Amino acid sequence: MYLNAIGTALPEHRYTKAQCWDAFAASDWFGRLDTRSHAIANMVLRRENGIDSRWLAVDSLDEVFAIDPDTLHRRFAAHAPRLAGQAGSAALHRAALAPAAIDAVVVSTCTGNLCPGLSGYVVERLGLRSDVLGFDLVGQGCAGALPNWQLANALLGARQCEHVLSICVEVCSAAMYLDDDPGVLISACLFGDGAGAAVLSQRRPAGQRKVEWRETSSLTNPDARESLRFQHRGGMLRNVLTRAVPRLAAQHADEVLATALARAGVTREQITGWIMHAGGRDVLLALEDRLDVFDRAGAVGIEHGSDLADPPEQVVGHHELRTARAQDRGHPNPMFGRQLRERRQCRQANAPTKHHDAFPPWLELETDTERAGDIEFIAGVEHRHPPRSASFRLVEKLDLTVRLVDAVDAHRPAHPHLGAIG
């Protein structure tokens, strides 16, 4: 399976953290929540944490605090089809393919439900063939893009399709929920809306750099289900986010990565770039501690975007994605490069690691498209905690993948490998 082209879509309105705090402080909800909740929201929305703003499918932040089942469902029904269609259209345009060339469409989401599903709306909006195969994947949460690509790979590998349109879309503003639980509050303060799409093809696109999907591995652990999931309260989705998530994410990512690399016959040292699902500062620091890869290979992040609900492989939180390395050079959150070095130094000295206030490490590195070489997508790895995937989601992006390919320089191996952890 080859990555042919990508497309992304975002709502019209972008809101800074300061704007979100001001809207929250002026809302009726501020008085309903206790002082501890005020302090948590203040910490997330007013302190430096690597996230500057978020895209939300609302015309005014006042709309965010109208939280009832009918309002939230209307928001999802209005914006999920539109964002999915826009991302899909952008991917088709970049692939220079007519809608009739698509043989299957696979759409993933976890922030709402339509029946018939979103795939039918995409067929309608893009003018795909009436006999196109349509699949709707739901409930896979943060790692949703990887099983989406696994299904596409199966369809292409079985020679049932020549081109598959893969789409992930999340309208997290349609899954808004507030109470005094810290995990609920942090979720409400971080997530944004958007969609990402990829055209995945059976053959290598002519005249393009090769990005090939090579191997994947999955792990299902029902015992960890309650660590990260959606509950239903009062007819609405309520996100459960616990302190165990960083440790579990790192542990399971390490296991599935080892399996995928063994199947592909590749060592970690051969991986020259990484896509990490940025589910927050603690998740990425736990991955760095467990995998110890940031100092020898590139990692990818987002310059200004908020997290969505799907992985970095597919969904974008900002249109200006940059490849990244854990260095202090030119990235918007220089604290993170310093954090990694300090943590490594503490480990080497057997000293306690320091606590930092930054959340996800959004790093950036210039790209050089002239010196880029072919790349093989070696390890698409995920871990699922039914009914919701618990991993990080790099607000991925497909754009992210392409930018990472751009960052491969001349002294890299002729066929460098890219590892993705969702």
Describe the structure.
By secondary structure, the protein is α/β, with parallel strands linked by helices. It has two domains: 2-201, Peroxisomal Thiolase, Chain A, domain 1; 236-421, no CATH class. It has helices at residues 17-26, 28-32, 35-46, 69-95, 118-126, 145-157, 182-190, 245-264, 281-291, 334-348, 398-406, and strands at 2-9, 13-16, 53-56, 104-109, 133-138, 163-171, 193-201, 211-217, 228-233, 236-241, 271-276, 298-302, 321-324, 375-381, 384-385, 388-389, 417-421. The strands form five sheets. A six-stranded mixed β-sheet has the order 8-14-17-11-12-13. Helix 5 links the parallel strand 4 (104-109) and strand 5 (133-138). Helix 1 (17-26) packs antiparallel against helix 3, helix 3 (35-46) packs parallel to helix 7 and helix 4 packs across helix 5. The two termini are 19 Å apart. Residues 300-306, 311-337 and 353-415 have low confidence and may be disordered.
SSE blueprint:
Layout: E1 2-9, E2 13-16, H1 17-26, H2 28-32, H3 35-46, E3 53-56, H4 69-95, E4 104-109, H5 118-126, E5 133-138, H6 145-157, E6 163-171, H7 182-190, E7 193-201, E8 211-217, E9 228-233, E10 236-241, H8 245-264, E11 271-276, H9 281-291, E12 298-302, E13 321-324, H10 334-348, E14 375-381, E15 384-385, E16 388-389, H11 398-406, E17 417-421
Parallel strand pairs: 4-5, 4-6, 8-14, 11-12, 11-17, 14-17
Antiparallel strand pairs: 1-7, 2-3, 6-7, 9-10, 12-13, 15-16
Helix pairs in contact: 1-3, 3-7, 4-5, 8-9
